[in-house]
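Deliverable D4.2, example record:
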Amino acid sequence: MQPARLTRSGCEVTGIARGARVRVLMAARAAPEPDERTAREWAQRAANNPRLFDGAIVAVDSIEISSSNGDVTIGARHDRYQRLAVQPMIDNGVRLLAARGVVSARDRRGVEHVFVGQRDARTLAYGEMWELGPSGGIQPPRAGVRELSFADLVALYGLELREEAGLEIARARCEPLAICDDVAARGVDVVIRLSLASDLEAIERSSRDWEYSAVRWVAVREFAQFAEGVKFSPPSVAIAAMLGWVR
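Output generated by the structure prediction step:
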């Protein structure tokens, strides 16, 4: 089984076969301590951007997609955000494991809309660009946990969805859509297709934009037109192209 692949805007998007298993296998080793050079570079960047916070992250070691059934296995480990943020000045190979939603809802006429948000100017990558999302790093599991299932990833993404957009994942239909490898931003997204159960009008009344400069619900059939008038992040362009929403 050969997965569909598309490379666009420096990102490689690999489709996940329907019914394929997605899991993350965590290495047993603890997060490495930053060396002296890393600590100095981080201190300088943190001084320039007070929003930077050195938290725990999940870093990607490997991605394997079974040729027989399409199952996706991501090898990962515990790491530190500062080791990610000091790149490319200090190239240590750290790649962030994140989840990204393609979050949709239908209005009362049955027209499908998709959530997009404009990133804050002070974010590490793609500041002020629009994106399909929300997106964010996977919260590291507690010590001793060696495997995260797709259901675990969805539950963790639900926290991100509530925090960044004020949206609830309860009763939503979720399925794995793709793996997006963003070389420039040093990140790997597990892309989740998420259809909210509530109608769009009710969602718009309850949603918030805590982490975005602006948010929109764009009709899928009008996505290409909307995308022509704004600047989208490269991963979002690649994912939209895979879905056939942009050329």
